[in-house]
Amino acid sequence: MAVETLVRARRAVVGGAEAAVAVRVRDGVVVGVGAYDEPAGGAEVVELADDEVLLPGLVDTHVHVNEPGRTEWEGFASATRAAAAGGVTTIVDMPLNSIPPTTTVAALEEKRAVAAGQAYVDVGFWGGSVPGNVADLAGLHEAGVFGFKCFLLDSGVEEFPHLPPTDFAAAMTETARLGALMIVHAEDGEVVSECAHGMSYDAFLASRPEAAEERAIGLVLDTARASGARAHVVHLSASGAVPALRAARAAGVDVSVETCPHYLHFESGSIPDGATELKCCPPIRDDANRDALWAALAGGDIDMVVSDHSPCTADLKRQDTGDFAEAWGGIASLQLGLPVVWTTARERGVPLAAVVGWMATAPARRVGLTGKGEIAVGADADLCVFAPDESWVVDPARLHHKNPVSPYAGRTLTGTVRRTWLRGAPIDLDAEPRGRLLRRGDT
User: Fold this and answer.
1) What is the pLDDT of residue 153?
2) What separation, in Å, do the N-terminal and C-terminal C-alpha atoms of the chain show?
3) pLDDT tens column, 259-310
4) Model confidence over 108-128: pLDDT tens digits?
5) What's the CA gap between 228 and 222, in Å, rounded?
6) Is residue 216 scored above 60 in pLDDT?
7) pLDDT value at position 441?
8) Stated pTM of the model
């Protein structure tokens, strides 16, 4: 008979609320969620401390691992170690900025071969949709990608070109036929202007106005409505797009939307000139916009919060010159997402259960990761032990990200991940990795 483990927690997030529970685990799967004081029945008992909360492992569906090709930016070993340290037990890797990008089955298999044996958490993969590869989408879908990523403007890397409107329509028609999810970087290149060289954050922000997102999201909604395709808008920054998204969903368009920790934590008025560690695209906007994003989360208009972990080497951030035009646009935050969001959420009176819904349950459900993102009978026993009242100061040198560049450096965050379990056992970063490479429909 298989050995069972009984995890007792006076506080746990189960079914969208906090409760005192005992979670019974066997063969890596949750086989029971009962009363806190239920008899152990021969199981090995793990008792959480009074200041700890048991959470499901987080699911981050927006992670740029960059291996192969740009492994000096990040790799599967470093990214998944960071994920585990941050309570994330499943990631889905973006089709760029690796070389080759994941736009063919051959490129997907090359990436899977590189990732094999390196993953400390479970890893799935997005396919890429670029001009000329509509014929490749069916093969990628059959090979198990979780959907397809595209850009509506220059992606920033030449090997992953954007889709003009006619190509986007053709790709959406194909993903509708396949029943696949299309995830879209929605900014309109005709509205975005060239950022002037210099240290001014305001100048960078002005180069990518809300209208760029609003117009591109309008195209996404119109194309999804016409094609019947399933769509997802990544890293929403502009709250002004929320009413259109709400109206489209009310009219039956199958569209979801995410935002990211940096849009919920920072606001443009406090970003000093030259702070290129905070450059991302779309950009961090003002305080009123941040408030509106929080309100949209609370109201269900934004579905989830994921990292958009987009690292690079330190030199590409151009902290030496502070030039926003030259700096790489991306924020590395895979290890920090939960404490960043929780720090701001608790200040706003948002319960921890809501944060877990946005960062674990909702992303898992949207991409079809059944058995992930919740503590429930039949789910993988992916667990996070979180101390929500413990404060700490971010030291980038102590993070597991490959490059120690972080806009959170020196900031005090509240909430510490103390342990992360993958399929019923604690993840040991000093042991051999045991994460699995997932295919759509595996879990």
Assistant:
1) 97
2) 24
3) 999 999 999 999 999 999 999 999 999 999 999 999 999 999 999 999 999 9
4) 999 999 999 999 999 999 999
5) 10
6) yes
7) 84
8) 0.98
The two tokens of residue 171 are: 């790709």
Alpha-carbon dihedral 223, 229, 234, 239, rounded to 10 degrees: 50
Q: Is the CB of residue 207 less than 8 Å from the CB of residue 158?
A: no
Angle of CA points 101, 107, 110, to nearest 5°: 120
| Domains of the chain with bracketed CATH | 4-50 (no CATH), 57-370+388-414 (3.20.20.140)
Tokens linked to 378: 């039949």
Cα(58)–Cα(334) distance, rounded to whole angstroms? 11
Model confidence pLDDT, tens digit, residues 409-432:
999 999 999 999 999 999 999 999
Paired tokens of 262: 């940096």
Tokens describing residue 290: 């941040």
Burial of 113 by CB count in 10 Å (0-12 exposed, 13-18 middle, 19+ buried)?
Answer: exposed
10 CB burial (10 A radius; 0-12, 13-18, 19+): middle
pLDDT of res. 149? 98
Cα–Cα distance measured from residue 101 to residue 159, given in angstroms and rounded to the nearest whole number = 7
